[in-house]
C-alpha cells in the first residue's frame, strides 16, 4: 500500500474486536489507532483521532451500525461486519465500502481493504484539484471558492468559515471539514483552527497572522504547519 491507513474498530464484542485487530496488525499498510464498544463512544473517538477505515458492527445496543453510518461525515471508508447477511440491502443503501459476514477469512478481509484503499486514493486525488465547496448555512446551500476562505474556526458543535466578505456558520466538525479541504492549501494549526496557507501574512511567536486575526499555533501542530511551507 502506498501509505499507511488508520483503522478503527467499533464492536460490542471484545472477542471480535481482538479478531479484527489481529488481521489489521498482520496487514502491511494498516494501523489500528482506536476502538470502541458502542456507537456513541465511536463518535467521540472520531473527534480525537485521524481515521481512514472504520470496521463497524451492525448489531449493537442503543445505536446500530446502520444508524451510526447515517451520522458520519463523508470521508470515512466504512466496512460493515455482522453475523448474518440480512442487513446487506440496508448497508449498501448507506453506500458503505463493503459488507463482511462473520466469521470471514483473511482473503475476504484483504478484498475489503483493497476496495477501501482504491476509494481513498481516488478521493485524495479529487480533493487536491477541487477549487470550490458547497456548504449549508442559514438554511441555504452556498457556493464557496476555496481561494476566498481565510480560516475555519471551531464553535461548539459548529464551525465558522471565515472569508473576507462574510462568516458562515456550519453544523460540522473540524475533523470533517479538514477531510474535505485539499491538504496542499489548508493546514490545521490548532485544535480549533484550520488556515488557508495562501492567506498567511506572517508568523510570529507561535501565532499565525491573517488580516486582523491572530491565530495560536498548537504545540502538536507546529511541525505539520512548517512542513507545508516553502522556505528560502
UniProtKB/TrEMBL annotation:
Molecular-function annotations in GO: DNA binding; phosphorelay response regulator activity
InterPro entries the record matches: CheY-like_superfamily (IPR011006), LytR-like (IPR046947), LytTR_DNA-bd_dom (IPR007492), Sig_transdc_resp-reg_receiver (IPR001789)
Keyword Coiled coil listed: yes
HTH LytTR-type domain boundaries: 133-204
Gene3D superfamilies: 3.40.50.2300, LytTr DNA-binding domain
Modified residues (4-aspartylphosphate): 57
UniProt keyword terms in alphabetical order: Coiled coil, DNA-binding, Phosphoprotein
PANTHER family: STAGE 0 SPORULATION PROTEIN A HOMOLOG (PTHR37299:SF1), TRANSCRIPTIONAL REGULATOR-RELATED (PTHR37299)
Name of protein: LytTR family DNA-binding domain-containing protein
Lineage of producing organism: Bacteria, Pseudomonadati, Bacteroidota, Cytophagia, Cytophagales
Amino acid at each position: 500500500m502506498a501509505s499507511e491507513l488508520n483503522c478503527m474498530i467499533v464492536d460490542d464484542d471484545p472477542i471480535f474486536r481482538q479478531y479484527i485487530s489481529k488481521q489489521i496488525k498482520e496487514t502491511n499498510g494498516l494501523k489500528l489507532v482506536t476502538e470502541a464498544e458502542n456507537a456513541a463512544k465511536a463518535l467521540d473517538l472520531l473527534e480525537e483521532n485521524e481515521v481512514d477505515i472504520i470496521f463497524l458492527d451492525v448489531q449493537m445496543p442503543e445505536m446500530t451500525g446502520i444508524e451510526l453510518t447515517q451520522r458520519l461525515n463523508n470521508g470515512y471508508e466504512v466496512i460493515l461486519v455482522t453475523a448474518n447477511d440480512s442487513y446487506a440491502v440496508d448497508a449498501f443503501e448507506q453506500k458503505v465500502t463493503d459488507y463482511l459476514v462473520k466469521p470471514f477469512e483473511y482473503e475476504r478481509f484483504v478484498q475489503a481493504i483493497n476496495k477501501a484503499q482504491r476509494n481513498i486514493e481516488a478521493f485524495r486525488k479529487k480533493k487536491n484539484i477541487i477549487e470550490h465547496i458547497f456548504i449549508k448555512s442559514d438554511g441555504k446551500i452556498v457556493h464557496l471558492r476555496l481561494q476566498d476562505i481565510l480560516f475555519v474556526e471551531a464553535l461548539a458543535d459548529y464551525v465558522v468559515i471565515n472569508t473576507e466578505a462574510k462568516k458562515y456558520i456550519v453544523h460540522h466538525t473540524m475533523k470533517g471539514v479538514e477531510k474535505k479541504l485539499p491538504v496542499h492549501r489548508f493546514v490545521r494549526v490548532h485544535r480549533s483552527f484550520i488556515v488557508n496557507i495562501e492567506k498567511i501574512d506572517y508568523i510570529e511567536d507561535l501565532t499565525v497572522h491573517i488580516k486582523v486575526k491572530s491565530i495560536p499555533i498548537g504545540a502538536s501542530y507546529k511541525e505539520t504547519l512548517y512542513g507545508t511551507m516553502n522556505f528560502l
